[in-house]
Amino acid sequence: MTTDIKHLHYFLEVAVRKSFTKAAHHLYVTQPTISKMVRDIEDELGMVLLDRTGKEIELTDAGKIVFEQAQQIVQSFAHLSDELSDLTHAKRGKLTVGLPPMIGIHFFPSILSRFRKDFPGISLHIAEYGAKRVADCITEGLLEVGVTVGKINEEYFNSFVFFDDCLRLVVNTSSPLANRNQVALADLYNEHFILFPEDFALRGMIINCCNKAGYQPNIVFESSQWEFIVKMVSEGFGIAFLPERIIQKMEKKTESIVTLPIVETELNWRLSMIWKKNHYLSYAARTWVSETRAALNGVN
């Protein structure tokens, strides 16, 4: 075979981003270049790997098989390079950290700045993904480390918790709920829910708890921005759930909202740094884990 690592890497980018244009932009190459790379693989294998007929690129059955194998090959090659780099004690490397946008802006600006200053040989990048997607990307080997929310599957991840806060219900002052001392999810089955998008772990936690309470929540609006969510509640658009520490700051600035404790104690905003279990971590990733563990110690 004439297909090399670069061919496979380009194919993976197209498959993950479901677009030749987006993949080319991310890789800083022209679209014809990346299209030719993928076509070379298809010609060599004698099979169509990507369905190009829809709005988004989709993997064919053959493409799914090649995608799984290509991931393993590219990851193995990257790990080989990392281990050889470690051997030279060069203290260099590349690292992309998965950070949910809302978490990144509140906890990591100073940490990122100090890390770049203390370790100039490490090329550090941030992938702003929802917590669920961060965990999925680490499982699939697309990221080495990242931050996620909620309970950690210890079978798949190593981790350390750096923040734990309860969720509070946010309602408009005109709501009948506003005069309560606390609320249970079972009381909210007729309410309009404002939730985070699908790749946010908190969304899944809230929906699961509602399901346990016997109903499917009526989701009327989605946003990844805390301020926007609070504004929509203040306009009487629906109810929302936000971490106590975050909403305390916003509640003082917004007169038309009230926050209430929730009976269900499993609804919390537990933040953890995670990385794949029984998996080689590059020098850059090990340094990030060590430095952030020290920096975030006692952040509560």
TrEMBL record:
Domain called HTH lysR-type: residue spans: 3-60
Source organism of this protein record: Sporolactobacillus shoreicorticis
Gene3D superfamilies, A to Z: 3.40.190.290, Winged helix-like DNA-binding domain superfamily/Winged helix DNA-binding domain (1.10.10.10)
Keywords: DNA-binding, Transcription, Transcription regulation
UniProt key word Protein biosynthesis: no
Full protein name: LysR family transcriptional regulator
Taxonomy, superkingdom: Bacteria
Family: Belongs to the LysR transcriptional regulatory family.
Lineage of origin: Bacteria, Bacillati, Bacillota, Bacilli, Bacillales
